[in-house]
């Protein structure tokens, strides 16, 4: 499969170039379909999400409002995630319908979604490199367990030992993540990344 640059893809979409559009579909559709199916959607909904996302991207290109700071595929996936999230919220009445389109068409929202997605991939990549003991402590911490509960589950000698262990494991994870060049790339896109590393 031929590789297209961001510029070639943008120009191809603008010109309705069949080769470029086929490339986008072949490379991205299955990924989007898996996203929708894995969160309770149907194949028909996946097709709708992909089509709506491409329309959003096309309109931004046509209006000269699209500036890519990542690969096109990453941007498109971010749009698809937001469109699908909006559809889910609309179905469950968590977000008023009139606010859905505003969230989906927000470049800041799309950009933050992309950063969050790449951030979590980075965190869990290095999380798997920690010792099994550290992994378990951090998982319990993320699950909202108290220091007392973690002490009992891990069979540690004291709550102070648990606090120290949790701190060392967290610091170890942060340190190895921050040594990765990708961390600096993500941080350059959003100064909030470092402070929000363990949110969500």
Q: Overview of this structure, please?
A:
- The protein has 10 helices and no strands.
- With 200 residues, it is mainly alpha-helical.
- The protein has 2 domains: 6-105; 122-189.
- Helix 6 crosses helix 9.
- The radius of gyration is 21 Å and the shape is elongated.
- Residues 94-106 and 189-200 have low confidence and may be disordered.
Supply the number of helical segments: 10
Estimate the mean pLDDT confidence.
78
Identify low-pLDDT runs: 94-106, 189-200
Structural class: mainly alpha
Order of helices and strands: HHHHHHHHHH
* Largest beta-sheet characterization: none
The total count of strands amounts to: 0
Residue fraction in strands = under 5%
Radius of gyration: 21 Å
Query: What coarse outline follows from CA principal-axis ratios?
Result: elongated
| N-C termini distance | 37 Å
What is the total number of structural domains? 2
Helicity level, as a percent range? Answer: over 70%
